[in-house]
Amino acid sequence: MARGQAPRLRLEITGVVQGVGFRPTVWRLARELGLAGFVRNSSAGVEIEIEGARAAEFAGALRAAPPPLARIAAVAESAVPARGDADFLILPSREAGASTDLSPDIATCPDCLRELENPADRRHAYPFINCTNCGPRYSITLRVPYDRPNTTMAPFALCAACAREYADPADRRFHAQPNACPACGPTVTFRRVAPGTPVAMGDAPRGREALRAAVTLLRDGGILALKGLGGYQLACDALAPAAVARLRERKRRSNKAFALMAPDAETVRSFAVVSDEEEALLLSPERPIVLLARRPECALPEAVAPASAELGFMLPNTPLHRLLFCAPSGAPPGGGAAGPTPGFRALVMTSGNVAEEPIVRDEQAAHRALAQFADAFLDHDRGIFMRVDDSVVRRVAGRTLHVRRARGYVPRAIPLAGAGPAVLGCGAEVKNTFTLTTPGAALVSQHIGDLENHETLEYFLETLANLKAVYRVEPAAIAHDLHPGYFSTRWALEQQGLERWGVQHHWAHVASVLAETGLAGPVIGVALDGSGYGTDGTVWGGEFLIADARSYERAASFLPVPLPGGEGAIRHPWRMALSYVAEACGGMLPERAAVRALLARHGEAEAANVLRLRANRALSPLSSGAGRLFEAAAALAGLCDRNTFEGEAAMRLEAAAGGRLGEPYDFAILAGAPARLDFSAAIVSLLEDLEGGAGPGTVSARLHATVVAAILGQVGKLHRATGIADVVLSGGVFQNRLLLEGVERGLAARGLRGHTNTRVPANDGGVSLGQAFLLRARLGATA
């Protein structure tokens, strides 16, 4: 067949297909099949035209073996007139008016690590080594197509050697946009901080000297602020008790666990129990922080994770992090060695930010904000466009669940059923994310944080503007929480010219699972968290809904109890303990050991004030929050009277149970609309157990079993009444492993199907997805 008569096909491919070695893979495949034509990036994805006798084989072969980091969302194939091309070419990118998916930032690949640690390689000990299979993506991308001029690498002109790699389709650095080497790329700088003085900006060690100075500082017990991939981090030797205590004191971080970094999975095993699946997560290209069970013989200081049964470990996700564990020699490439730093087994690696503010991304801001925490800075001159924190995950019942979704996972799109308009879900107040939708997918932002201050709201607006620009998305409508005091709600209501729609918090939790799973509903939704704005003037939080994408009915809830002083009771669980005891005992405080201990710790006069406050409904709204029940029990068991971070008391109660469920206490399900789950009998029995000498572990195991039994009892009633067999479990309380696993086992034993969040967090980090999904359905998304 003559070339001009050969069939010619056009393929338009969307998904994560830029910055992942897609064009070199297409080029090699076309050559193998003897095809002519071209491939090029566009702002919409990748365009391919092929002609030749084996053109029909091409699409199937590409789908069967795409680049490892690619995610093909769709392939539109059409026949076009043959052109008689003689070769297969990679053409320059073009603007197409639409937008493709960005790749998340990817941890350093094994090939680059081998070069990093090879003294003979020209990139030996270079902190910014990367290729098409790894390195920064989302954090450096200004716009699409994903080409070097559209990234923060634009200021760095390629040297001749890097330019040859960049231009060679057979090289693994072909069109690796962050490609660089010590001769032409970014560099690191080490600067010490003198207490009470500005950071010195004059002559400072650079390159390898800066790396050696940073490692020496850490080895000597100092605190280092380093510019990571998506922002600054604060690091110290995790096995140096004085350094850890000093960092905790400087950050004013009372009890919340620090994230940890170790050089390899084997070292992590010396501190924590690591399953094969957890090791795979540690080693994955996403390199998240993985929550792991602490070993009893763990040598880490208690100050790393006070009273926590879990440790959050990650492995180095950038070459710079790896070099903190491998001290580079002073020799130039071709000589010297890099080896493990003696006695250096783990680093604290926590976010570089002021309390409750977002992670810092640029040098000037870091030097202003973090000098109070750090003894020195390890800066670099590669810009960060999208700041992004570390992701946190855990393995539960054979699945990976997100606690915080950010680096490595964002902005990976979540497919949505059908087509719908572009909308924005603004998210919640704490653990905020926002969600933008495209016609067939949802883009959930990285973890923004708690919208409690101007700085975090600015981060929200900055990230929203960036994602709208990069993805060319302009929402037609906005969904927001019903709570009028949320920053996200107030901002949404200020936007003019757009439809604005309030979504009940717990319906959004349930809807986030519908969005992930494609369930049409109706479902029995169990949404358990601390609090969410209710439509009846009370604070909701232990909710059972019959729901789909169009409507919901509140079928049942935990029995509401007064929240003494409103949010003050959330910070001080001992107040909720008194409220639950008074609710269970007719407004009185019984003579029980746990109650006497509470009074001894806080004073009878203060307790009397709490009870008086409890009776004032204007100051003590009713709350059905499931989280409040666990916090009250933690205070009664003497585990935690004050939350120094969100959920601390409940986490301590779960840890005390030691991974087991006990014999359930009695409880009642009170008929009504909605029905009420009453735990008064359980509180009385818990007090009796403590009076009889039972320890915190016993009462925790029994209370967890009680809540599991109550949930299963209420779900069973709803199943019998409606015939619905799909049960959705969402809300931050379902991050409790004991609770989630217990409920899921019970559902399976009853022939019911349990569903929970796996693509976004079950906590408020998933609320924005639910909001956007519901608004999209309201505006007429098509199936």
Count of DSSP helices? 23
- Beta-strand fraction estimate: 15-25%
Shape label: globular
Class computed from helices, strands and strand pairing: alpha/beta
Distance between the termini: 44 Å
Please summarize what this structure is:
32% of the residues lie in helices and 21% in strands.
Question: What can you tell me about this protein's structure?
Answer:
The chain has 23 helices and 33 strands. α18 crosses α19, α19 packs across α21 and α20 runs antiparallel to α21. The longest helix has 27 residues. It is globular, with a radius of gyration of 28 Å.
Keywords:
11-stranded mixed sheet; alpha/beta; 23 helices; 783 residues
SSE blueprint:
Layout: E1 8-16, H1 22-32, E2 36-42, E3 45-51, H2 55-64, E4 71-79, E5 88-90, H3 110-116, H4 160-167, E6 188-192, H5 207-219, E7 224-227, E8 232-237, H6 241-251, E9 259-261, H7 265-269, E10 272-273, H8 276-283, E11 289-294, E12 310-314, H9 319-325, E13 326-328, E14 338-340, E15 347-351, H10 363-369, E16 376-380, E17 392-396, E18 399-404, E19 414-415, E20 423-425, E21 435-438, E22 441-444, H11 454-471, E23 477-481, H12 487-494, E24 499-503, H13 505-517, E25 523-533, E26 539-547, E27 552-558, E28 561-562, H14 567-571, H15 573-584, H16 593-602, H17 604-614, E29 622-623, H18 626-636, H19 648-656, E30 668-670, E31 675-678, H20 680-691, H21 696-722, E32 726-730, H22 737-749, E33 753-756, H23 767-778
Parallel strand pairs: 2-5, 7-16, 9-12, 11-17, 20-23, 23-24, 25-32, 27-31, 32-33
Antiparallel strand pairs: 1-3, 1-4, 2-3, 6-16, 7-8, 8-15, 9-15, 10-11, 11-12, 13-14, 17-18, 19-22, 20-21, 21-22, 25-26, 26-27, 28-29, 30-31
